[in-house]
Amino acid sequence: MTQNIDYNEISKFSQLAAQWWDPNGKCRPLHIINPLRVDYIKQQIGCLENKRVLDVGCGGGILSESLAKFGADVTAIDLADESLAVALLHAKESNLIINYQKQTVEDHAKEHPAYYDVITCMELLEHVPDPFSIIQACATLLKPNGKLFLSTINRNHKAKLLLIYGAEYIARLVPKGTHDFNRFIRPSELMNWVEQAKLDVEDIIGMEYHILKNEFKLGSNIDVNYILTAQKNSNL
């Protein structure tokens, strides 16, 4: 089986490694949206303390650290050596214990079936050749009643205008070439994959960027960025 890896994408994010934790650098949008993501996860989960959490495609650990600070037992996986090195160092400096591993989620699923209470996979699906493979692996990793959080980008003209022309070329919020429009995922496609993986769609919420205010807000508009919550049936 061909591995579900795009080495060009790994290289692209490896080059950002030194800036993962600079709130005013090239990863600034992640720092802006991270509190929104964490608040949303907490709303859906409740207490995170002692929950086994897997952060898939963790990058430099921005979300991983936030979840660990709320008492979650966090494992975080990525394939970029440089990003993982930054994540490990920052966690140590922050006195946080996070189990960082270089591994695909598919391989992790073979070793840890039905192990996690919560899995987060944020801004990763649009960067891999086979998003459904990621979702299937996450479904395998979840305990019954466990929850999966997926965030990605809708594929339409508005998203292309705002995230590629707006964010990359005009506002320069992210480096040029960060996004590939053809890999954006419509909510209907994502929901179909989730259901094929025998998970139940529980909620979907939009994360809207206001370019003039330079801020994100959660709401019902899923035209561009959105987060989907799925749950594994207790009978599986």
TrEMBL record:
One term of GO molecular function: polyprenyldihydroxybenzoate methyltransferase activity
Stored CDD domains: AdoMet_MTases
Binding site residues for S-adenosyl-L-methionine: 37, 57, 78, 122
This protein's record includes keyword Transferase: yes
Highest taxon in the source lineage: Bacteria
Record flagged with keyword Membrane: no
Catalytic reaction equation(s): a 3-demethylubiquinol + S-adenosyl-L-methionine = a ubiquinol + S-adenosyl-L-homocysteine + H(+); a 3-(all-trans-polyprenyl)benzene-1,2-diol + S-adenosyl-L-methionine = a 2-methoxy-6-(all-trans-polyprenyl)phenol + S-adenosyl-L-homocysteine + H(+)
Enzyme Commission (EC) number: 2.1.1.222, 2.1.1.64
Pathway info: Cofactor biosynthesis; ubiquinone biosynthesis
InterPro entries named in the record: SAM-dependent_MTases_sf, UbiG_MeTrfase
Biological process according to GO: methylation
Keywords: Methyltransferase, S-adenosyl-L-methionine, Transferase, Ubiquinone biosynthesis
Function: O-methyltransferase that catalyzes the 2 O-methylation steps in the ubiquinone biosynthetic pathway.
PANTHER family membership: METHYLTRANSFERASE (PTHR43464), UBIQUINONE BIOSYNTHESIS O-METHYLTRANSFERASE, MITOCHONDRIAL (PTHR43464:SF19)
Family label: Belongs to the methyltransferase superfamily. UbiG/COQ3 family.
Name of the protein: Ubiquinone biosynthesis O-methyltransferase
Organism: Gilliamella apicola
